[in-house]
Amino acid sequence: MKESFEVRERAEEMERASLSTWASLASESKGRDRHEDPDPLRTAFQLDRDRLTDTDAFSRLGAKTHTFVPEAPGAGWRSRLSVTLATVKLSRTLARALRLNEDLTEAIASGHGLGAPPFGPAGYEVLGDVLGEPFEVAEQSLRVVERDSARLNLTWEVGDGIIHQFGGASTPEGNTAALGRRLATALSDLRCALRASLVHLDDVPPRVRTVLGTDHRHRVAVLLRETVSASIDQPDIRLGEEAEGALRDLEEFIDERVHRRDVARAEHDRALHCMRSLAVYADSTSDVRDESERVATIVDDLAAATDVEITQRFAAVFLPSTAAGE
User: Fold this and answer.
1) 139-194 confidence digits (pLDDT tens)
2) What angle do CA 153, 141, 146 make, to 5 degrees?
3) Using an 8 Å Cβ cutoff, are 317 and 278 in contact?
4) Are residues 272 and 278 in contact, defined by beta-carbon separation less than 8 angstroms?
5) Neighbours of 96 (CB within 10 A)
6) What is d(CA 293, CA 175) in angstroms, rounded to the nearest whole number?
7) Which stretch of DSSP H or E encloses residue 154?
8) How far is CA 119 from CA 25, 154, 304, in A?
9) In this predicted structure, what is the pLDDT of residue 263?
């Protein structure tokens, strides 16, 4: 067993010797809610990453819509899981280049989408209606983690990164994962929109083409390079000014020309109808008297469901049986 413990200890020593001044060290984590003996092979952040990717919530992301866009042969529109994996890839690349803790960065990025609802933007809208305020995926993701805290018992740093997935984390690794999520979302959406011929390269804003390039690999390389150039040897993780402006242009373009297309809105409205109907039904049939507890239960249940599960529930509750006459 002594030899096994030396594996983790060597990894921790390598972190101390090789990582940036600003990096988070697994051996200096603020710890977990409940004490547990160290893993003999894995550092605390490696263990968190493995626990998160082994959850049901993580695997179910593969059956949840990221955004509504009509399918086309070879278009490759991605699920929430695919976008999460793209976030992990970009975030880890940035962490390595900046000499930050790759394991912590990967764990945080893996946990970003755990609370994502089915049907993409429609799910956000319905759950916001149920709550009476905007649905926050960061808060729901942390809630998923906390509900499973008996098994996960994550480090403080991972929880902080999950709740601050849009920026403002206490660690550079958390902010690296937040930027990685932003890059992955914009780049994936543009790539798939071009493949599906929803937009054409000439439609893309000039600053995006000039600064980031005209093909996916080049855009990825530029954004990674510009992030490293602006963030190296300092605690702040950011893009350079020119690249930041181009990324904002891209995000606005995707929102207007892809997410708001009539055909996307049509699917969005169908999903809204399914989820709103189920939310109303759940509220009317619930035996939970406390309103806040009832709302939380409905949100948890709907947010955890996959696209297929929502449509199956809707059919079971609202559609007439076809068995008559058999």
Assistant:
1) 999 999 999 888 899 999 999 999 999 999 999 999 999 999 999 999 999 998 88
2) 30
3) yes
4) no
5) 13
6) 32
7) none
8) 38, 28, 11
9) 67
